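Entry 12.
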Amino acid sequence: MTALLVIFCGIGGLLIGSFLNVVIWRVPRDESVVRPPSHCPACDTPIAPRDNVPVLSWLLLRGRCRACRAAISVRYPLVELATAGLFAGFAVRIGPHAALPAFLYLAGIGVALALIDLDVQRLPDVLTLPSYPVALVLLGIAAGAEGEGWPFARGLIGMAALFGFYATLWFVYPAGMGLGDVKLSGVLGLYLGWLSWAALVVGAASAFLIGAVVSIAVVVVRGGNRKTKVPFGPFMLVGVLIAVFAAHPIAHAYLHSLGR
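Predicted 3D structure (C-alpha cells):
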C-alpha cells in the first residue's frame, strides 16, 4: 500500500509540477493561470497536449519549442521533478493518513512560492492568504478523521506563535523582514505545530540559520553588502522541509550535546 501510495503521489506531483510552472510564470504578472492555455512565450503558439507531458516532452523536444525552436528553460522539467520528489517524500513521511493531502498542498504551494520569491522577491497574497483556510480545513478534516484533536490544537498554537514572532521582527526592523514573510509564517507554523513542538522549533531556527549562511556566502562570493536583498521565503520553506524529515533527530542531537 505504501509503495503504491508513493508512486501515485509521485506521478501526481509531476502533473501538479507542470501546472506550477504556469503559476510561477503568470501569478507575478497578474495573469490568469487558466486562460489562455499554455503557449510558447516566444511565438505564442499554443502547446499541443503531446508537447505538454511532464519532463518527457521537454526531453523529446530537446528543450526547444516545436514551432519556433526557441529554447525552453530546463527549470520547467526540474520544477516537475522537484514537485514529484516532494510529493513522494511526503507520502513516505506521512504515510496513508488523513493529513497527507494537507502536506501535499504544502509541497505544491511551497514550490510555487519559493521560486516566485527567488524571481521577483515577493510572496503574492493571492497564494499565501488562501493557504490559511485551505490548510485549516485539510488539517481539521484530518484531526476529525483520526479522532485526535491535540495535533490540530498544537498547530493553531504554532500558527499564532510563529506569526507573532515574525510580526514582531517586522515591527522592530521592517527593512530586515518582508511583510510577505510574516503572512507566510502563520501557515508554516500551523504545519510545524501539527507535527510536534520539536518540528516548530527546528523549522523556525533552520530558516534563520540557512538564511544567515547563504547571506554571508552572497556577500563573500558576489561582493554584496548588508543591504543586499536576499529573499527569505525559500529559507522558511527549506526550514520546514528539514523539520518535517529530521526534526526529532536534530532536537535529540542538540539536547544530547547539552548533556540532557
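Annotation: The first helix runs from residue 2 to 26. DSSP finds ten helices and no strands in the chain.
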